[in-house]
Amino acid sequence: MGYTAWDDRTPSRRCDWLDLIRGWAVIVMIEVHCVNVWLPAEAVPGWLQYLNGLVAPSFILAAGYSLALSTFRPDGSIRPFGPTARRLGFILLCAYLLHAPGLNLADWTLLGTAQKYREFLKIDVLQCIVFSLLILHGLARAIRRPRVYAGVALAAALAVALASPRLWLPGVADGWWLPVRGLVNGNPDRGVTALFPLAPWFAFAAFGSVLGAVYRELRVLPADPGDPSAARWSEPRWLLALGGLGALLVLWGSAAAPGWLRGPQWPHDLLGRLHNTTLPSVAQRLGVVCLAGAALGTLEQLRPRWPGANPVKAASSESLLVYMLHLELIFGLFLARPVRAALGLEWHSLGWAATLALTALLIGLNLWAAVGWQRVRLEPGRARRLQRLGALALAGWFVAAGLVALGYYRLHPERIHQAQT
After folding, report:
1. Mean pLDDT value across residues 25-42
2. Distance CA 207, CA 287 (A)
3. Omega into 200 within 30° of 0, i.e. cis?
């Protein structure tokens, strides 16, 4: 990346560093779930726990970043919300189905329990992303001015991160309506614990949206409206600034964190749990993500171009597919009772070698699926046919398998309690 690249201000058509951050976040997410499922907790080193904790911030930041680039047209007007609403609705449907009592009629009726129905309302990372994006879309469409929107989004990110520790204090929001309850904090309530409440996770989406709005100004829009061939900044200059911002956020977050929660209102026994909800912790993780993005973007500028599909970018483009597929493989197939019994894949029962082997297998399968589906999507008609067939197959399974299960458990009622648990 020499002077020519540094001076190349051709407007950006695709943000490589963001694609790479999202792609690697999806890949590391598979490792996270494999390690959490099969490796004993005491065997996971601290550095790996920290690395794994950066997956969700990367993924959520990337979602907010993309919103700013896709919502505002080059002239500053707003793109229609209809296509976005349909996409977000589909993601939300997938998000809740992952926590559904089951995928057949019997699971929703005879085998259902009150706790399973409550778990259906759990707020996980996909729900957090969708609700965060809906809020940001509302702001963008109410404000309609990209620069003002960026300022409001930054203020919203700071406000949520500042308020989050107080929202996580014991008793806050207890007893609220469950579909809303989990958006406030991650404290257990009625047996349900939100994994990614909006406090503080909305801050990552809002800050990502600010970065996207700045990138739009510096790398997408022309510096001179009369000359559309030159943006204000080159990509290397943007990556250098991104890395510098990341370093500042890491330094400030690390310095401010130890003394952030002071005073009698912060019970000593809760300080460790509340740490990740604070503004310094959010800033530190945002900084690491920015540094990683700058590094990946720089490597992308320098590396030779290889033939064939880029599996990391395929994972980024097909992140929802990979997210759904790897969860179904781990928690649906490998942790199914017969498979566990046959292969010995019990929770926290494997060593490093076996865990890494399973991780590599699952990453390979998911990347193969992502690359394959990208090829299918080059033929929109074929892709739609396959999607319809998949939906019909799922609906058929829901009814047919459910009726078979209902018949079986009516003949063997003594097995109902075992199936419910």
Report:
1. 94
2. 11
3. yes
